[in-house]
Task: structure prediction
Amino acid sequence: MTAYLKLDHIDKSFARGGTVSEVLKDVSLDIAKGEYVSVIGHSGCGKSTLLNIVAGLTEVSAGGVILEGRQVDSPGPDRAVVFQNHSLLPWLSVYDNVRLAVDKVFAGVKSRAERHAWTLHNLDLVQMGHAKDKRPSEVSGGMKQRVGIARALAMEPKVLLLDEPFGALDALTRAHLQDSVMQIHASLGNTVIMITHDVDEAVLLSDRIVMMTNGPAARIGEVLDVPLARPRRRLELVTDPAYLKCREAVLKFLYERHRFVEAA
Amino acid sequence: MSVTALKSPPTPPRPTAQIVPLALPRRPARPSRAAATARTVAAAVVPPAIVLVLLLGLWELLCAGPGATLPPPSTIWQESYDLIVNPFFENGSQDIGLGWRVLISLQRVAIGFGLAAIAGIVLGVLVGQSVWAMRGLDPIFQVLRTVPPLAWLPIALAAFRDSNPSAIFVIFITAIWPVIINTAVGVRNIPQDYRNVAKVLRLNPLEFFLKIMLPSAAPYIFTGLRIGIGLSWLAIVAAEMLTGGVGIGFFIWDAWNSSRLPDIIVALVYIGVVGFILDRLVAGLGAFITRGTTA
Result:
């Protein structure tokens, strides 16, 4: 069986002023349709680079990304990204930020009225319909990130790429948004790759957790299956032995075998 | 006994204390808003008015004596009464109100500055977007922008063989540099996030220009336009003094040649006020268009 999304022996190195620094070394991963995969690792291990490679924003040095049997090497709406710092355009309203994406992706497919309805539908999906006429500067950080998710979802991407989507949020808002993402994933069945540095978040949301070794030349150290049934409820999981076991496995990987060494 | 005595007195004042402050502020709320606006207007107008009166008084004192080289305000008011009171009179082709002269100068500025704005934004985008355009053009721009506006005038006169297009060219060449440089900085400072959004959405170059680049760089562009309009207004007065014609600059030169000092001073006030209005117009337009771009 061929994978829906295949990362095939990806190498990435940056050359700057004669010195070549290897960031990623021989990263291979098969992701099934509808799967939720988290990539976790210490900062500087190249996980954001990996996401940018899948998004097509960064070129690979060797290897390739294959989506539905076709190689992808440039960015496109089939791999929508939710950026860490929301990246909403501040001069557009919440509605227009999503509408810009809808208009571009469904230009010849949907009528004007349909695009309007689809924009509102996606804003409602992240519970942001009430603030559609506000500008990004007028809503909170969590709300901005919701709009960023709505914009990505509105492109009907084959793969949704989340780059530390909740990293800049406070703990309560983060939990709230994680629940929203779980709900959306349950109802739409998106294929998701999420970059994170939060162990609980990774275990709570993912079907599989990809653990990266420290850079330079980071590799996939381990891949952990998370055998928890969905829907998952954060309160029930707190004492769930399977949850705790997964959590322990990730923590052990990060803090025992691949402890982050400053200026390694 | 003591307990009941303590309990009973606090209860009656409570309701009265709550009702009184609620009833009071409601009634004066509306007149106080008008008073507040009057107060802010007064705060903006009264201090400069006082300073102006003081300066005029000082000027009057200094220039009232028989040996004074410059006319005092009272003399200006008497001798240039028609220029001050009626900006739009017409007593023949050369004897027209200062309002008309300012409009003629403004027309030249409008053409020259308009061309400079368009060309400046286009060149600025080019320099901001393309590394090679920057490497090739930026050093040349940096040298050319230090050339004083009037130094271009002889070359313009030689090329166009007419005073009006020469004056417009001087405006153009004066105003274009700040527009180019600020636009280029604005384009270079477009956050990588916005570029990534554009890439993921596969915006074509025109869509990127209209939907990302212009709005993102707009605050910088308007800073350049604001500097440019100020320089244009500086340059047109100087250029008209040399090229002749009917603008406000030529009026000053003409008045100097016929020793009408009061007229020159009136013209200076006109130039200052018009320059101030132009600056505020561009700044207001910029604030209106770029509202919300900083988040």
User: Anything to note?
Assistant: Helices of chain A lie at 47-55, 94-105, 112-125, 141-154, 171-188, 199-205, 234-237, 241-257. The longest helix of chain A spans residues 171-188.
